[in-house]
Amino acid sequence: MRLAVDVMGGDNAPDAVLEGCRTALNTYTDLHVLLIGDEQKISGMESFGERVSILHTDSVIDNEDAPVRAVRRKKDSSMVTAVRKVKENEADACISAGNTGALMTAGLLHVGRIKGIDRPALSPMLPTTDGGGFLLLDVGANMEAKPEHLLQYAVMGDIYMKQVRGLNRPRVGLLNVGSEEGKGTELAKAAFKLMEDAPFEFIGNVESRDLLDGAADVVVCDGFSGNLVLKSIEGTAISIFSILKQELTSSLKNKLAAAVLKPAFKRVKNKMDYSEYGGAGLFGLNAPVVKAHGSSDARAFFSAIKQAKQMHDESVTSRIKDVMSDISVKEEYHD
Predict the structure, then answer these.
(1) Global pTM?
(2) Which of 33, 39, 149, 177 could form a disulfide with 56 if both were Cys (CB 3.0 to 4.6 A apart)?
(3) 136-185, pLDDT tens digit by residue?
């Protein structure tokens, strides 16, 4: 697999990005990486020989940049160049921890959408208490959506969980304020009707309070709701671990107890740590484009690379294309 990497994107770039790449190269002997960024800041990759290439660029898209304007004005930026290499068939997939909106824009402009998919979805895996995780889509690629878009998200999520996560019949749920049919907005009600007859295991509405308990394997919603769920889960996890740390170091007795329980707390942290679940795939594009978390450390970036490789090796994009060419989502599911 040939992977184009935006070395300069993310809060911890380039060090965390490069360390994640080194781990991936040591793990996957068939991986070839094109590192795109400031060559003066790229080092320690000589031992991988021809499996690593470096393409220098001075331009970087910052998180503060307006996505559309940045992609158009910074055509030689590390991010846009990485995406363009996929379009030019010099890479099979690309990954960046940089500006989410800019990566989405670049993906649409250069890689393009799969025929039959109206809007790509930003789709991360999130942790569950049983360690299995669930796929949430969309989490911000599109703030508003139509019922057909949610149906398309569900189809793509179903394919991903089958091909990459190995589930025979992924449970697909629709995020709502209640589990009963007829709850929620007009969007949710209309999407529910479409999904009832869809060719996947639709389990109905699921509430946000049940997500971490593994209520569904795929959870579908509009980007606005999904982003709120994502940020709420991340913020809650950070706050809980912060409170625990304060309490466990507040007295000698608590410190002694913490020492005994340290292995258990470490297991809990690892189970709920986003870095174990990779990045967020931009589902619906013509090739794998993966958004790593902006604050990714080396382990998180490696996990994102692992996700991109799985998407490539399991031909997720091709399988989505096949499904969308075999059926007309809008027509068949409306009949």
Answers:
(1) 0.85
(2) 39
(3) 999 988 888 999 999 999 999 999 999 888 899 999 999 999 988 888 89
Is 1-117+284-313's fold the same as 119-275's? yes
Asked if residue 96 lies in contact with residue 6, where contact means CB atoms within 8 angstroms, the answer is: yes
- Please name every residue paired with 3 in a beta bridge, in sequence order, or none if there are none: 33, 93
- At CA 133, angle to CA 194 and CA 179, rounded to 5? 40
Residues forming beta bridges with residue 275, ordered by sequence position: none
**Residue 202 CB partners (closer than 8 Å, separation 6+):** 154, 172, 173, 174, 195, 196
Rounded distance between C-alpha atoms, residue 31 and residue 21, angstroms: 10
Alpha-carbon span 191 to 97, nearest angstrom: 32
Q: Which residue has the tokens 């824009």?
A: 105
Output the CA–CA distances (angstroms, integers) from residue 126 to 137, 192, 204, 310, in the order listed: 11, 23, 20, 17
| Three-state secondary-structure class, residue 302 | helix
CA 160, 13, 96 angle in degrees (round to 5)?
A: 30
Query: Cβ distance 120 to 113 under 8 Å?
Result: yes
Alpha helices, H only, the chain = 15-27, 67-73, 78-87, 100-106, 147-163, 186-196, 223-248, 252-271, 298-313, 316-326, 329-332
Burial class (CB in 10 A: 0-12, 13-18, 19+), 169: exposed
Provide the CATH number for the domain formed by 1-117+284-313 in this structure.
3.40.718.10
- The C-alpha atoms of residue 198 and residue 1 are separated, in whole angstroms, by 33
Query: What fold is seen in the domain 119-275?
Result: Isopropylmalate Dehydrogenase (3.40.718)
CA–CA gap between residue 269 and residue 231 (Å, rounded): 17
117 vs 130, higher pLDDT: 117
